[in-house]
Specification:
ATP binds at residues 174-181, 206-207. The protein has 242 residues and is mostly helical. The protein has ten helices and no strands.
């Protein structure tokens, strides 16, 4: 399943170092698309062009403060993820909470970076997250899985399962989806892959694949979604490198 992606990554690696302007244009495009689509999946109504303007520091009339903050915060979270990759830091619970803290900064500071203290339901999903009082224990188990069994997997499968397990636990009151997609991309980027963008138009397939993974332990649809998304990003790199 991962052979084609590995071959594309090898082609890109052979052409490194890439042209500075090429890297800059790809990064700016991915940062915008990633922020727009990840927030749109969660119901943010900013368009792609409006998101671009907000990230440039301009306020959009008719849009809520929360929607503005979601865009700005997501960009800050991406920059933090890039910093983790640059410093080659080991994956940790502190990073997870710090990413979430950035996502909810100014929106819900009381719950930003803090595990939920109540039970929740995921709208439209069959799976019911675990009781709040076992969240810390399950997050600890997630870290153990990552450091042991997870390291035996191909990085794409490991990143996909990290997302799946994290969302299944649903450790925070809000912002779990955005945090999960940031964690998935953090794992890819740490291993030399570019980030993926799950598009707003794929929202139903994305949620269905997650629910399937959570209810019957069938991870194939979600992994395929990640593979398809990664192929799109790699193809963008290859196109601009010609």
């Amino acid at each position: 399943m991962f052979e084609q992606i590995d071959q594309k990554k090898e082609l890109i690696d052979k052409k490194r170092p890439l042209q500075i302007n090429t890297i800059k244009s790809i990064r700016e495009s991915l940062l915008l698309d990633w922020t727009y689509n990840s927030n749109a999946i969660e119901g943010n109504t900013l368009t792609l062009s409006e998101t671009k303007v907000v990230l440039e520091g301009i306020t959009i009339g008719g849009k809520t403060l929360k929607e503005h903050l979601e865009a700005v915060n997501h960009k800050e979270a991406i920059l933090y993820v890039e910093d983790i990759v640059k410093k080659n830091e080991d994956f940790s619970e502190w990073q997870i909470k710090s990413i979430h803290r950035l996502i909810l900064k100014g929106i819900d500071d009381e719950n930003a970076g803090v595990y939920r203290k109540e039970n929740v339901l995921i709208s439209g999903a069959t799976h019911i997250p675990p009781d709040y009082f076992i969240v810390p224990e399950q997050m600890s188990e997630l870290l153990k899985w990552y450091n042991l069994e997870g390291q035996l997997l191909h990085v794409i499968e490991r990143a996909a399962l990290l997302h799946i397990i994290f969302v299944k636990i649903h450790p925070f009151i809000d912002g779990n989806g955005r945090t999960a997609r940031l964690l998935l991309n953090l794992e890819l980027m740490k291993n030399g892959f570019p980030p993926i963008i799950i598009r707003k138009e794929e929202r139903i397939d994305y949620y269905n694949a997650l629910d399937k993974a959570h209810t019957i332990d069938d991870f194939n649809d979600f992994i395929k979604l990640v593979v398809d998304s990664l192929n799109r990003t790699l193809d963008l790199y290859l196109k601009l490198m010609k």
